[in-house]
From TrEMBL:
GO terms for molecular function: nucleotide binding; oxidoreductase activity, acting on the CH-NH2 group of donors, NAD or NADP as acceptor. Keywords: NAD, Nucleotide-binding, Oxidoreductase. SUPFAM superfamilies: Aminoacid dehydrogenase-like, N-terminal domain, NAD(P)-binding Rossmann-fold domains. Pfam families: ELFV_dehydrog, ELFV_dehydrog_N. Residues 144-345 form the Glutamate/phenylalanine/leucine/valine/L-tryptophan dehydrogenase C-terminal domain. It comes from the Bacteria. GO terms for biological process: amino acid metabolic process. The keyword Oxidoreductase applies. Belongs to the Glu/Leu/Phe/Val dehydrogenases family. InterPro entries: Aminoacid_DH-like_N_sf, Glu/Leu/Phe/Val/Trp_DH, Glu/Leu/Phe/Val/Trp_DH_C, Glu/Leu/Phe/Val/Trp_DH_dimer, Glu/Phe/Leu/Val/Trp_DH_bac/arc, NAD(P)-bd_dom_sf. This is Leucine dehydrogenase. The keyword Iron does not apply. The lineage of its organism: Bacteria, Pseudomonadati, Pseudomonadota, Alphaproteobacteria, Sphingomonadales. NAD(+) binds at G180, L181, G182, S183, V184, G185.
Amino acid sequence: MIFDALDFDAHEVLHFGHDAATGLKTIIAIHSTHLGPAAGGCRWWTYASDAEAVTDALRLSRGMSYKNAMAGLPMGGGKGVILKFDAAPKTESLLEAFGRTVDSLGGRYVTAEDVGMSDADMTVIARQTRHVSGLPSAAGAAGGNPGPSTAEGIFVGMRAAIAHALGKRDFAGVRVAIQGLGSVGGALAEKLAVAGAVLTLADIDDARARAYAARLGGTAVPVSQIATTDADVFSPNALGAGLDAETIDGLRVAVVAGAANNQLATPTDGARLHARGILYAPDYVINAGGIINVAAEYLGQGDAASVARAIARIEGRLADIFAVAKAENLPTDAVADSMARKLIGR
Ligand code: NAD
C-alpha cells in the first residue's frame, strides 16, 4: 500500500519511532540523500489519523529535497512529524526521546524546527543528537529560529513576483493579503508594512490579527475571508494544502506568494492557477530562507552576512522560473519541479 501511494515517490526511508515512557510517536521521512544528509524540520501537530501524519511527512520531505536542491545546498530532503495528543505532552523527556530517534538514523536526517517547535526545543533535542540545527545562535552567526530568514526570502521572492506580474519594482501601494501571522507571517507583515504595502491580515487567533493590524496600519479580517480578499497578492503563511479547486476559483489576486509548505492541494492545482492567470511562486523555492540559514549553521559554513546574500538570491531564482514558465506557457510549479528533479537525479 504505502510503496504504491502517490506521495511515497521513491522515498529512501520511512521511519516510525515510538517511546513508551513519554508516549512519543514520530514519523521521519527521508526522501533523498543524493545531495547530502536529509535536512528538514520537525512538526508537532494533531493529525486525524496516523495515515494523515504519514502523508504529511512524505509530502513535506519530498518538498525539502526539492527545496534544498533549488537553494543550492549540499543537503538532501527529509522531514519529521511528532504526533500531538493529550497522552504525549511536549515535555523535555519526549523531546529527548525524539532526539534519540533522530540520532539512531546516524546523520542521514538532520532536524530543525517547524510548526509547533521552537529553538528552545532544539536545544533539548541536542542533548541526544548532534544532527540538529536551528539552535539559538550568537549575534552575527548563522542559525537560530529560521522564521525571520524565511520571511526575508518570502519578501524578496514576492518582489520578483510583483515585478513579473504587475511590473512593480517595489511594494509601495501593493495590496497583500496575509493568511497566518506566526513566526513567518508576522515577520513578513512587518517588512511589507515598512516597504509601503497595504495589508489585509487574518489569523485563527483573531486578537493576534487585530493587534498586527493596529500596529502596522492594516485591516484584520476573519480567517474565512482572507483567501477571497480583493488584493494584488495572496500570501499563505498558515498550514499547507490550502490551494484547491474551490479556493483557487475564489482568489481575487494576481500573485500567490507565501511560506506555507505544500500549498497546492493536488498536483493539478498549479495548472489551475496558471489557467486563471495567477502567478504562483512555488512554495519550496520562495520559502527556502530558513533552511539556508540552518544549513549554514549545521555545516559550520558562513555567518549571518553570507546567509543574507544566499537568501537574496531567491529573488533571481524565482525570476528565472517565471521567465521560463512564461516562455514555455507552463505552470510555474511544473517548471520548478523539473529543475529540482534534475538536480536530485530523479
Ligand atoms: P507558526 O506556527 O509560527 O504560525 C502559523 C500561524 O498561522 C499561527 O499564528 C496560527 O495561529 C495561524 N493559523 C493556523 N491556521 C490558520 C488558518 N486556517 N488561517 C489563518 N491563520 C492560521 O508557523 P510558521 O513557522 O510561521 O510557519 C508558517 C508556514 O510556513 C507553515 O506552513 C510552515 O511549514 C511554513 N514554513 C515555515 C518556515 C519557518 O522557517 N518557520 C520555513 C518554511 C516553511
